[in-house]
Specification:
Helix content: 10-25%
Distance between the termini: 55 Å
Oligomer: single chain
Number of helices: 1
Largest sheet: 5 strands, antiparallel
Length: 168
């Protein structure tokens, strides 16, 4: 194969990998803006903003990824929607996962209400189970997880009324 064709083939494969691979993590100094989505590694779930029906209210939620109706399985800010498309999900300086309106306004719309020693020690990840976790990088300790805060849909291993099923 001539070098030009080989380079073109390599570039094509690299671009295909980038387009097909999913981004399932929010790292420090990154954010998830309205219109962006996290997709779990196995592409089962997505995390992003949505509006139910004809509403202009925006919610941050986890939905099935490859299901036609993309049913919502968890909602972060169910009691406090964002108006318009200005919502941003990010990790603050204390390692807390926060949802802001109007590009990081002073008061967050939603908070995970936990913190780590610093933001550089944490990342948020959408797992293939549908669980959104805030985890410390080095220790892998889970600081917060959406499965502890069920909304109207129960997924496997999600807590029901504060009780978790123990694995055998």
């Amino acid at each position: 194969m001539n070098p030009a064709k080989k380079s073109l083939s390599t570039l094509f494969l690299f671009l295909a990998f980038l387009l097909c691979s999913s981004i399932d993590i929010i790292a420090p100094n990154q954010s998830l803006k309205d219109g962006d989505v996290l997709v779990s590694g196995g592409q089962r779930y997505t995390l992003g903003f949505f509006s139910p029906g004809n509403s202009t209210c925006r919610y941050m939620g986890i939905r099935y990824h490859k299901v036609l109706e993309r049913a919502v399985v968890w909602v972060e800010n169910k009691d406090n929607p964002v108006n318009g498309t200005s919502g941003v999900l990010a990790i603050d300086n204390q390692g807390n996962l926060l949802l802001y309106e109007n590009n990081r306004s002073i008061v967050p719309v939603w908070s995970s209400n936990v913190s780590a020693s610093s933001m550089t020690d944490c990342l948020a990840q959408l797992l293939d189970t549908g669980n959104l976790i805030l985890v410390q990088r080095d220790s892998k300790r889970v600081l917060w997880q959406s499965f502890d805060h069920a909304t109207n849909t129960l997924l496997l291993n999600m807590k029901l009324l504060g009780w978790a099923r123990k694995s055998v």
